[in-house]
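Suppose a colleague, Dr. K., hands you the sequence of a protein chain of 336 amino acids and asks what its three-dimensional shape might be. Before reaching for any lab equipment, you can write down a predicted structure in token form. Begin with the sequence itself:
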Amino acid sequence: MSPQHRRRTLVVAAVAVALLGVAVLLSLLVGARAIPAAEVWRALIAPDAANPDHLVVLTQRVPRTVIGLCAGAALALAGTVMQGLTRNPFADPGLLGVNAGASVAVLAAITLFGLVTPTGFVWFAFVGAALAAVLVAIVGGRGPNGGDPAKLALTGAAVTAGLMAVTFLILTTNIHALDVYRYWSVGGLTARGLDAVALVLPALLIGAILALASARGLDLIALGTATAAGLGQDVARSRILGIIAAVLLCGGATAIAGPLVFLGLVVPHALRGLVGGSYARLLALGIPLGAALLLLADVIGRVIALPGEIQAGIVVAFLGAPLLVALVLQPRKVAL
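The predicted structure, expressed as tokens, is then:
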């Protein structure tokens, strides 16, 4: 890495960390209820159960902040891994059918078990996401050219289409399921507590470790399968490692925050234009940037429609679509 490139990477890292710090502060300070910064600080260090301001901070803003940190970082990591596995800078974590699998599982929880709260959906969403991704990996890895990026993408599209058909069938025949499901399906950081985070945190941590460990393998896969194999890389092992990481990360994030779109696609794509194609850098920088962007989207959703709120998933989609178009239209791109 040249000195100029190293300096640019350090600047981007500093900006990402600073942006994350600002996002965390805003997430704790901003909301429909005006709470002084000093009172927020007291709620964190010396909480008073009889103080309504403290209750708002501890039961609403702190859980939303923690969920935003975990889900944003996880989706950025998952998106980076998927783009590396498929050698496609526009690949999304949903390519493995994760969102569709989680949706069907949540509907099963509603219709078969009568669950009505997002916290109750956590394990169903996680297991559904994981099963869908495993199905895509198994089917996409069979036969000639098993594990080929194009075959994996087509398999993911086919599985997603089938699962979405099941989703629409249930929604059009069960009004109760539609009423409960439509809130979760938007994606957001509300109505979940720290207990939901605790359930999926081990999966998120293991997924993050596996994703960071797969950086070298993704760098070699970017050179082409034959080249990577010639350099001594076990391509099949790298793909399995990456898929497991993406399943754990995206499944866990979807379970606690719903099916958020664009975040896992935009973050690595934006970073690639700033720091190059090294997956060690993309993965490391994606953690603070992904978390910051999701928290900022949640903060924006709190203030643009007072006294109500707009879910973070809607804000991410509105901001992510034009940003992605702008990135695509940039004349300078770093090839995978």
